[in-house]
Description:
By secondary structure, this protein is α+β, with helices and mostly antiparallel strands. The chain folds into two domains: about 1-75, Glutaredoxin, CATH 3.40.30.10; about 90-195, Glutathione S-transferase Yfyf (Class Pi), Chain A, domain 2 (Up-down Bundle). About 60% of the residues lie in helices and about 10% in strands. The chain has nine helices and four strands, in the order βαβααββαααααα. Helix 6 crosses helix 8. The mean pLDDT is about 95. It binds glutathione. Glutathione binds next to helix 4 and helix 5.
Amino acid sequence: MIEIYHAPMTRGIRPIWVCEELGLPYSVVPVDFSSEYRASPAWRRMNPVGKVPVLVDGDLTLFESGAMVQYLVDRYGGQGRPALQPAPGTETHARYLQWSWFAEATFARPLGEIVNHRRVFAEGERSDRAIEEMQERSWLCVSAIDAAVTAGPWILGEEFSAADVMLGYSLMLHTALAPGDLPDAVARYWKALSARPAYLAAAAA
Ligand SMILES: N[C@@H](CCC(=O)N[C@@H](CS)C(=O)NCC(=O)O)C(=O)O
């Protein structure tokens, strides 16, 4: 049984969402998200940098959400289940990889730093300018998605893929942390993503 060590509304949503899309059995193991627990030797053995999530499947332990998503689709996608990715080696697959990596390495990065900034610094020590600058970076990513998803409905066009799962979590963070109206194509995309039963199940986990 796949185990996903998760805290509510964190990146564990991504592998849970993929398990739901694939119809895979899994269990969610709640993690104490306090800084103290995440710094403990017990949790550092699971995740060496003290973050969430962690996925365990038999002897395999993973501590990057994008790697979990890719592992799940490679290992369990297809074979009577949705593939959730284009055929490897194709140009569409290259675009799939680009958007999957973009979701975490470029888009989620400033958003995660806003969360960390607010967690680490007390009210009077925080820099509004630093937070605004991170929000601007996030809006630039939204513009990139807007241009790409205009044809839609999904980031690769007609085919829903795990890249949409990767981006969906980052968009969820963006809507929570960077106030303002989404441009039309992204608003439609986010509405479609956040209405998927698999997303709703993951967001409730
Ligand atoms: N790139 C990592 C990022 C993991 C991450 O930043 N997780 C957040 C929760 S969503 C966390 O544990 N933050 C606590 C911290 O950074 O101290 C992944 O995608 O798994």
